[in-house]
UniProtKB/TrEMBL annotation:
Name of this protein: Trehalose 6-phosphate phosphatase
Transferase listed as a keyword: yes
Originating species: Saccharopolyspora erythraea (strain ATCC 11635 / DSM 40517 / JCM 4748 / NBRC 13426 / NCIMB 8594 / NRRL 2338)
GO MF annotation list: glycosyltransferase activity; metal ion binding; trehalose-phosphatase activity
Pathway assigned to this chain's UniProt record: Glycan biosynthesis; trehalose biosynthesis
EC code: 3.1.3.12
Amino acid sequence: MAATVLDPARHHAVLFDMDGVITDTASVHAAAWARLFDEYLAHLPPRAGEDHRPFSREDYTRHVDGKPRMAGVVDFLASRGITLPLGRPGDQHGQATAHGLAALKDHYFGQELDSAGVRVFDDAVALVRALRQAHVPTAVVSASRNCAQVLRRAGIGDLFDARVDGVLAEARGLAGKPDPATFLEAARLLDVDPAFAVVVEDSEAGVRAARTGGFALAIGVDRTGEPQRLRQVGADVVVDTLRAVSAAEPRGGPRPLSTVPGAGVHWDEIAPRLLPGRPVLAFDFDGTLAPIAETPAEAILPASTREVLAALSRRCPVAVLSGRDLDDVRRHVGLDRLWYAGSHGFEIAGPGGEHFAHASARTALPALDEAEARLASRLSDVAGVVLERKRFALAVHYRQVPDFAVAHVLDEVRAVTPSSITLTHGRLVAELLPAVAWDKGRALRWLLERLDPTGMARPVVLYAGDDLTDEDALRVVAATGVGIVVRSTEHGDRDTWAHYAVDDPGSLGVLLTRVASLMHTTGGDHDRGTRLHDRGRH
């Protein structure tokens, strides 16, 4: 079984189901349900069209697992052709209403719990603790009204940062799984965008909820030897033990964005790191050089930033690595002496006519064409959605989509993404890219090899970016270069490989002006930068 690694730079929270994932209370629930329905069906007078066979394991999986008690009662009885008055929430166990049966199930669950106790899955607890050590917040999401009691009896009541259970769901009017409402509430409590949160579930209803809610990843936990049931409803990964899932090791680099020091007040540290080497400057475009706009077409590079980029490009290699199409980013920047990488580095062009297009990525172009056509049809009635096709990518922007429709947009994007395409997430955008091992970090390495083919020049790279896709490049420069992150509240306090931070593109422009002044006043930088730049032109 291939290991699944959760990366704090991309996965900002993990939401766990309780029964069957954290605790072995799924078997306790199953026993309580079986006792309830077997007794009820045995005493029910025969009626035409009704099925009074004993409650089965398949009934549990299909009709009640992961659902609120009332939904489980109603759905199971409906599957047997049986109707029962709903009654009222205060009905006592023993009353011939759906609420009465739900109360009786709760009573039986308590008895079973007293008898069997609570067994905790060690693999799940180990994963939660590893995530907490990596500063990834966690939540438990359960339909059970007994969730707090179960966690307390198991000795892990304080393990999670948030809890959404049957009691809270009822108080706030949250629909149960397969509706994503409880998972979305947990993400809200953790202040995390669902597009950057992971759901860990063992029930079909829970996996469906994760998919509908637009979560970054749905991990199915199969402890029964039936992994296909979770794959069929959309689990991205199915494991039989959570020991196959791990949190990425920080390796001394990433840290919370809120702890990254400001570049402006630490200029006395940055300047010496640039002076001894042969600088190469590389930047993301949207949100880094240019402010984020409502639509990609409206983004404008400030004139002052364009001027300083032009000045810098006369002294050292300068590159713009963008998620935009190559021709699009080149048009928006409008400077001839720069290197440009489009579609997150799948296509690169240099100032001397150099050109690179990732060969393996070309095979994914028909799949991107098909995905674009299907999404154009499926999302045609969604206000505010913008499809941006690039040669090697398809971006689905939902910045202007109403909040209630975002989950639908993301679900449609997932539905049209084939195995030859990988789905990534950025600042209010979902992007389809060729499923090959390539990113901005690898594109930056390609550029550095082109600029310094002998490896003797040893350039010092300054890279600035704002988005999750920039972390691959920031990681490349973490050991020997200067990494700058442009802060964004849209991603929350995520981890970053950057050394310093600026508050916005305007602040980055001011910093680059200081870099240009530094290079102008240090006599040898111009010659060293020009020689390195010229290496890339031959």
